[in-house]
Structure formats: C-alpha cells, structure tokens
Amino acid sequence: MRIARFIMLLAVLLLTGCAAFEQRSEMSRFNSAYQQGRYDQAVQTMATEDSDTAKAGDQVLENLHLGEAYRLSGQFAQSVSRYDQAEAGMKYLDTESLVSSAGEGVLSVLVNDSVRQYHALMSEAVLVNTYKALDFLCLGDTANARVELNRADDRTRRAVNFFADEIRARKAQVREDDRASARLVSDNLSSPGVQSALQEQYGNPANWQVYSSFILPFSTWLHGLYFLANATGPSDYERARTSLTRVADMMPGNPALAADARLAQDLADGRANAGRDEGRVWVVYENGLGPVLQEVRVGVPLILHEGRVQAPAYFGLALPRYVDRRAVPGALTATASDGTRVETRTVATMGRVVRTEMQERFPGILIRAIASALIKAMVQGEAADKFGAAGQLATMIYAIATTQADVRSWQATPDHWSVARLDRPADGQLSLGNSVSGYLGSLQLPDWPYTLVYVKQPTVTAPATVMVMDLQGSAPARLRVMGGHGVAASPATTTQK
Prior knowledge:
There is one protein chain. The chain has helices at residues 2-34, 39-45, 53-56, 60-72, 76-88, 102-110, 122-138, 142-177, 179-189, 192-201, 217-230, 234-250, 255-268, 350-402, and strands at residues 280-287, 292-302, 313-323, 332-336, 341-343, 345-349, 416-423, 429-434, 438-444, 450-457, 464-470, 478-482, 494-495. By secondary structure, it is of the alpha+beta class. Helix 7 (122-138) packs antiparallel against helix 8 (142-177).
C-alpha cells in the first residue's frame, strides 16, 4: 500500500516542485521591488486574476502581498479587494474546520506541508482586518473601518481557544490518516532521544521571546484609538479603555500609550469631555521588514517498530523557524512649528507576534514532521524488501527530496510599529524626520480633531509612504512620499478620492 502511494506521489512531487520554483521566483521579484519602495512594480510581479471564494484558498499568499503593495501605492480600494480575497481563503480560522482536508493531510505527511494551500497565521488574519480598516479610513469610510477593527478585536479574543482546538485536531488527523502509525508518532514525540535532539539542534520554543497572550498590540491599540475618536456613548468609551489599557500595560515604558490609556479611562468614567476642539495628532511608524521562515534540519533517532524497542534509526526532520530581518535605524520624529518635538516608541514587534503563535502551532508541525519521517522510513524498508537496492535507493532519494519545511510567509509585514502623540500645532505645520538619518519632509495637517499620521518605510533605500488620515473618517486621506532612493522629500501632495 505504501509503495503504491510512493509511486503516485512521484508524479505529485514533480508537479509541486515546478509550482514551488515558480512561486519562489515570483516572491523574489516581488521582494526586489517592494524593498525599494516600488510598489506599482511589485503589483505587476505578482498580479493574479480576481478569484471567487472557491478558489481564494489557492491564492491567499499572493493576495496578502498584493493587498499591501496596493495600499502603499495609494490604491486603497484595490487593496481592500485583495485583502477580501485573502480573507476568503482564511475562513478555516473562523470555523470548526481547523485542519486541512483528508487529501491535503495525507499529502502533507507523505510529501511535506508546502503541498497544502497556504495556512495563514491568526495574527496575519488580524493584520488583514487592521490594514483593511486603515484602507477604509483612507477612503473616508468610517463605517467599514469600524467593522474591520471589530473583526480584528474578535479574532484576537478567540485566538486562545483556536490554538488549543487546533492541536487536538492535528493529533486526531494523524490517527485518521494512518491509525497503525499513530502510536509510533506518539511514542516518538515523547522519546527522550527525539526531545534531546530537538533541544540541541532546533532549540526550545518555550524560550522564545513572546507576548503573554495572542495579541497583535498595534491592532488592539488602533481599535482603542478608533473608538476614542468615534465614541457615541459610554459603551464605545469602554471599548477604547479596554483596548488602550491592555496595550499600555504590556508596554509600560511608552508614554504615548500611557497617555492614551489615561484619556480613555477619564472619558469612560465621565471625568473628561471628548476634547474634540483641542485637536490631537498620533504618529505611527511602521518600520522595516518582518521576520521570515527558514528551514532547520534536525537529525533525530526514531523508533520504527511497536512492541519490543529496537535500536533507533536516525532520520532527518525539516522544521520551520522564524528569523528576523532588519529595521530602518532610528525612530520617527515629529516637530511642530512651536518647537514641540516627539519621537515614536515601540508598541509592537512582528517577531514577537509570530513567535507567540508559532510557539502554539509548533506541536502540530512537529507531529506532522515525525509522522512524515516514519512513513518515509517504512516506505524505504518495504522498497528494499521488494525491489532490493534499487528500490531502497529510489525511495531514499524521494525521502531526501520531500523532506522540506514549509517556509512560506507573508513577507510584506514590518519589523515593528512605534507611536507618538502630540497636540495639533496651531498652524497645522508638522515636520517629519528620522532620529538617525535626519529630515524627511513637512506636512500641512488638515483641521481635523483626531488625525493619524501613518508612515511606512520597509528599508533604508525605500521612500517613506505617509498617509494623513482623519480618524473619524469624514474625509479621504492625503498621501505623500518622502525621501528614499537617495532623493529629497517630495513636495507633492495627493488625495485619494
């Protein structure tokens, strides 16, 4: 039976290998354009046809990248469309269907996880809702911005139960896929030899720097800030207080977060009015390139037979692990015409966000990796018995070729977000700069009571994309591009209609 599966999968391996090569080439072209801030060009490298919901799962990763490239090029409606399609392919995050289909499950064990449709992280889904909310604010659509921020908050709330259920589902799927191997998988997971090899060659996920809960702090902060600016009654102020206090407690050294939490608390308690006539400005710096997955090879001693334990044989596992890329040096500075100067401080790092989730997903990844290694080892044994050395060699080549970690990831996320706040300058003039590299450019702020100045810069050579948004969503955003590519700040100001 296993030999028949092996023959079938040789054809699958050839097809998936070609598809994987094309996807890597596409990502390389996208990253080259994206990291230079050439977002229109990045769109062209990964342009896919609009897909219906049934096909959305096949293009989740492509649509995630396209959504962000469209957002940074100022094409906010197109960005929403792509993020909608990406989210349509993530519906398993919102249902009880936590694992792939039976066919996908078998293939992931017999080949590797990369043959499955891309399974987005819960934190990526939260970020999609957050970016869609920002798109809607840029379009002056406050109602839909509210919907997306509530979705992000709801997903954050449900994350704890999701991961617990997912681990149970992964174990159940191994039992369903091959009951005869389920006991071996369990024995190997608890084997001291396997655990020791993992500690030495991969490390202990329990030692990763993670957040105390499954939260994307920037999304939670933006949720609170939105309701602070748009509250229509006590329940909205309570939402703002809950979100802003939660993030401030996680980052006790950030004065902007502490001030936001105090304001929300005062408004929720009725000790302050909304202060809409005062005018407040928040500055966000979305900085650098977020972490990506790399493959780590681990040689482990596997027990191949039930019953009387024989000497374990060593086999290789391929496991994914996040590695950090780089941030743009320095903080973003904002200086008013009266000399008031603020500097952004970190509110969230993407590395800690994804490692918090990977720490919970790792047991499921390890289950499939060990199950895959056991099946391939047994196939080699059967091939040697039936076909001799030639069969053993063929299945050994198959095992080596298919033992790969799934290292697909959304590569348009930032290294971190940082924030600052200040009163609106009387004349509306605000200068932006970098604490290391200096002046970026100047803005004339609209006369809005609550203004969000949102700046994204993925690399030192990329320009800073500046979106000036009305947090109440009554007007479209103003888009600027400052610096980058060794040129001076652009004097042009454009407005998305």
